[in-house]
Amino acid sequence: MKKELFTKGEQVFVKEILNCLIxxxxxxxxxxxxxxxxxxxxxxxxxxxxxRTFAYIFKKIQIxxxxxxxxxxKNIPNSKKENILKKxxxxxxxxxxxxxxxxxxxxxxxxxxxNLLGIYARPPQPLGYDIEQGDLGLTKNVIxxxxxxxxxx
Length: 153
Prior knowledge:
By secondary structure, this protein is mostly helical. Helix content is 56%, strand content 0%. α3 (48-68) packs across α4, α3 packs across α5 (93-108) and α4 crosses α5. The longest helix has 21 residues, at 48-68. The protein starts with 7 loop residues before the first helix and ends in a 9-residue tail after the last helix. The model has no long low-confidence stretch (mean pLDDT 88).
């Protein structure tokens, strides 16, 4: 059974961060609007190291945001949220990159996003995929060698 690592309040906080990292736009949802918090919960349940990294970076974001608004990260204007995240990224690049990498991983494997992008998880046949016509001139040397295998009867 998976353990819920985020309280309801923490989920709101994390969703706000995710929406800053991948905001809604171009008919795509923001990362906080789809099940990325659940995805993060799943991966954090399997790695103590990731759990520590995320706890550390979230704490740093929380501390920085309390300077601007002691009440709630959610009520800070988006431009100030972005400034907070940029500061944290500069100070703690390795931890912040871990947050970004896992946010993007969760976002681009989410079925809502892949469907909106027209990327479908299916076998290549029988529907096939459109393949761009390439320059076959590069195969000239291989073709000029002739057959280099034996026919099997």
